[in-house]
């Protein structure tokens, strides 16, 4: 956490930053600055309108998603929309992420747009939709066929 020493987080933010840093260390990835800044500003362990935006604007990438999703599963029970767009998620990555997503019981919508996923993930997505009873999934600008 030394590289973020100049930040002055809220009490809740400090708790979330510590938890996130520990999860990143366990995964062997560097904490993401954008996600760190999002956490530091939090005044409570709640998300605006239940939306967890882990889109490419944070530059998490497929390896950095895991600690963020683990934190979400432990701290944000009210996640209803998860945005994972533009994170270079591919078939095997999605299978790994699916297990973490299943720990978000309130999830109703998932955005996977602008990821290089192909038709090979259809069974994985089908299982995910059934298991979580998702009502919405965004697959725009992926490599999946329109069939």
- Computed CA radius of gyration, to the nearest angstrom: 15 Å
Mean residue pLDDT:
86
Low-confidence stretches: 1-8
Contiguous helical run count = 5
Structural class: alpha/beta
How far apart, in Å, are the first and last alpha carbons?
Answer: 47 Å
Per DSSP E runs of 2 or more residues, the count of β-strands stands at 4
Shape: globular
Largest sheet: 4 strands, parallel
Considering DSSP H and I runs of 4 or more, what fraction of the residues is helical? 40-55%
Indicate the proportion of strand residues: 5-15%
Major beta sheet, strand line-up: 1-2-3-4
The SSE order reads HHEHEHEHE
Describe the structure.
The protein has 147 residues and is an alpha/beta fold. The protein contains five helices and four strands; from the N terminus they run H-H-E-H-E-H-E-H-E. Strand 3 (109-111), helix 5 (122-132) and strand 4 form a beta-alpha-beta unit.
Question: Concise description?
Answer:
The chain has helices at 11-27, 33-40, 61-75, 91-101, 122-132, and strands at 51-53, 81-83, 109-111, 136-138.
């Amino acid at each position: 956490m030394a590289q973020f020493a100049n930040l002055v987080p809220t009490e809740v933010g400090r708790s979330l930053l510590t938890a996130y840093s520990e999860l990143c260390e366990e995964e062997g990835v560097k904490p993401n600055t954008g996600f760190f800044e999002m956490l530091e500003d939090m005044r409570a362990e709640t998300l605006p309108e239940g939306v967890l935006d882990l889109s490419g604007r944070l530059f998490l990438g497929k390896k950095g998603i895991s600690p963020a999703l683990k934190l979400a599963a432990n701290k944000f029970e009210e996640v209803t929309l998860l945005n994972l767009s533009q994170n270079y998620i591919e078939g095997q990555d999605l299978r790994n992420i699916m297990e973490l997503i299943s720990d978000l019981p309130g999830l109703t919508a998932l955005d996977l747009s602008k990821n290089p996923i192909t038709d090979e993930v259809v069974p994985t997505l089908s299982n995910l939709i059934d298991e979580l009873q998702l009502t919405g999934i965004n697959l725009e600008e992926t490599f999946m066929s329109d069939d």
